[in-house]
Fold:
Amino acid sequence: MSAALVKDIWIEADQWTASESDFFDDNSDVIVTLANGEKWIATFFTYKNILSIAEKNKTTSECLAGAYFWATDMILVEELSRGKIESVVADLINQNEFEHAFRGMRNLYE
Structure:
């Protein structure tokens, strides 16, 4: 797969206002649409957001009071900027790892 096959990258965080998010401490769904129309989804988390979630879970008792955390199709990044996300998508494609990190959306409903 070539990065040139990417038609569009939709980033949930692009929909937020500056006051709604901290691009260094948040997570965002990302949908990649390929030229052939296939759609793939993953959730990008910042490293800092994982720590924030763990701290929150200690107080809410979720995930055995912060003892673990998991998410399907999780990709960790430094920040949720469009540039960083586009670079990660391109690198995953170039390294032939894209289909391991993202889930085909057709599989979500099967």
Q: What stands out?
A: The chain has four helices and five strands. The mean pLDDT is 92. Residues 3-109 form one domain. The two ends are 24 Å apart (CA to CA).
